[in-house]
Predict the 3D structure of the following.
Amino acid sequence: MSTRTLRIGTRASALALWQAHHVEGLIKALPGAPAVELVHIKTEGDLRTDVPLWALKGKAFFTKEIDRALLAGEVDLAVHSLKDLSTLLESGIELVATLTREDPRDALLSRTGTRLADLPAGARVGTSSLRRRAFLKRARPDITLLELRGNVPTRVEKLKKGEYDAIVLAAAGLKRLGLEDQITELLPTETFPSAVSQGVVGVCCRSDDAEALKWLRPLDDHAARLATTAERALLRRLEGGCQVPLGALGTSTGGTLQLYAGVCALDGSECLTARGEAKPTVEDAIALGQRVAEELKAKGAARLIAEERDLRQAAEQP
C-alpha cells in the first residue's frame, strides 16, 4: 500500500473534472492504490474568454499552467484532453497514459433538430475551432459562422437560449457529461476529420517520478497510444504548435494501423486529404504520421497552413 497521496492537476470545468475523476477511479481500482486528490488550476484558456483562442499569441492555452505546477512539484499528475496538449512536451514531463478513446467524431447540435445539410441558408453556427470552421464552410458555404466559447454545458445552454441555430462540439465530451441526447447528428470523419487526439484523455507526470509512473503505466490503452502517436507525429511535422485547419484520425483494423488526414482552406474552397497504413508499433506509428504529413505537404498543405497563419497574425491581440 502506497503512503503517498497522488495530487492530480486539473482544470475545474465540468468535462475536465469528469476526466480527472475518471483517472482517479482507474488508479483506485489498482491493487494497493494510493490516495488521490484533485488540485484545481486555472489556465489561460479559462481566463481569456473575450477573444477566439486562435487569435491569441502562444499555444497550450489549456495545459501550460498545469504542466508548470507539475514541474514545480505542486501536483504529481496532469490530466488533459489530449487534443489540447502540445506535440512537444516540456522537458521533464512524460505522457505516460493515453486512456481508451471515446467517440472521436464531431457532433452537430441544432435548436430545431435540423441536420447540417438541411439548415437554412444563413443559419448561425457556433464553433471555436479553426478546423471546424474550415470544414463547415466546405460543407455549407452559405451558413454564418460565429465564435463559441465557454465550457460544454455553457455552450449547450447558449444554443438553447437561441444565440445560435446550431453548434458543433466533440461527441466525446457530450457523451462523458451525459449530454448525448442533445446531439442532432454525428458528422462523418471522411468529410469532418477529427481534431488530433480528439476523444482521448492524456495523463502526464514528471519523467523521474518512479512512483507516479508505476501507477500510470497500467492505464495506457495500446490502441489509443498507436492512433494518437500517428496523429501527433503528423501534426508535429506539419505545424509546430499553432492551430491549423487540420483533422486526422488513426484507426486499427486487422493488425494494421491506418491514418487519414485532411487540411482545409479556411473559406472551405479547397481540401487536401491523404492516408496511409503501417504496422501497429509506436515506431511505425511515428513514421506513418510523418509520411502522411509529407504527402499533404506535397499536395499543397503548407500553403493552406501559411494562409491560416497570416490570418492569425492579422487578428492577434496586443
